[in-house]
Amino acid sequence: MPWEDKAILFSILLVYSSSQVLASGEIQEDGQCAELNNTRWQEYRQQRVRVEVQYLLLTRRNPDCAQKFDQDSVGKPTSHFNTSRPTKVIIHGFSALGRKPSWVTDLAQALLGAQDANVVVVDWIYGASFAYNLVVENYKEVALQISVLVNQLQQKHGCRLESFHLIGVSLGAHVAGFVGTLFEGKIGRITGLDPAGPMFKGADTSDRLDPTDALFVDAIHTDSDHFGISIPVGHVDFFLNGGMDQTGCARSRFASMYGYVICDHMRALHVYMSALNGTCQLTGIPCASYEDFLKGSCVDCEVFKGRCPAIGLQEKSGIATSPVPQQQKIFLLTTSSAPFCAHHILLTLEVSPLDKSAEVEVTLTTWSQGTEHHFRLKTEATVYRTVLAHPVALCQIDSIRLRNTGARLYRQGDIHVKSVCVSELPLRSHEAPLCVNDIDIRRGVPWSHDFVQVCGTS
Length: 458
Description:
The chain is of the alpha/beta class.
């Protein structure tokens, strides 16, 4: 959409919404906490032509009891909004059953734990429920209404556009993107948590989240084969476990397909909250593809001057380069449960030439925790590499075990391993890999080696 058309639409809505959108923003005088809405199918059928938006405010002064909010609330004695602090805007996405999102308070509190900010929650459940194709028709109107609020906070109360950070979940990411489009990319930051894919993958960049929507745009992808988008939409795009099929999400025939997909889709949100809680750092490695990443073809962050991007609130995700490259794919592996952090271990196996194909099982052990990988060895190759997710750092690996697991009749019985090495990504020039050399592995006779290590303080 040309900016002239956007400006006209924005001006019309500015007049319209001063009475419509913000009418719900009375500050509670009775001390009651504001709540997100639910809607039912009957209500939806009656009101689906109307998009209602309300705003809730949470701060460190009221982290458990939201206030209804609008631009007229600012400056009132009962309002906790502080114009000198940054403002986080949470935007939910599609709700299949019309239920209010249960995760909003957890995300708001994680944000407040990480930074002293105003957290504004956008509640548009009436326009976000039941029929996905109709919800997609509503998202730009919601974005326009949010833009009115942001514009009034900027014009009347001195809030700077760069102090706004919009965090959109699923379809909410594209709502945030259109808000950024209306402000010509001058919003400080937009974070997309598994931005919605259906009806957006082939859309024009003006109709979906893209790097021009804010000064910095980051996105986390966890379900790019179903509900999430598979293409990069930000300056940096974190693809967790390749962006699909998250560890810990049930895939058995007894689990519902919907539950399995939703688990993948919502993993971006849960990983983001874990990163905000600061238990451990979730960093990734830039690479052209997930396959190249797993093969150990990408081992450092030199494209970012050695600083690997991290999920969370660090400025520009911790990237030091300027200007920030656009649409950089960042890959990382996670564990199956919170806090989801894993150490990326590069495992390299070199064997002498083989007469037959073979299989070797490699296990890295720390205390009672083990990480296992099976190499399929071929006669035409001698060097094999893979990247593994291990729960602790390289210096805490206690032992390594190799086992020839090939079938007796048609696999090689004896394998000579020239070397097996483990190192931690990103590779650093001053850190040598752990290697064991000259090993003979016979079928049915496991081989193991204990490491004696002390972790450094740096």
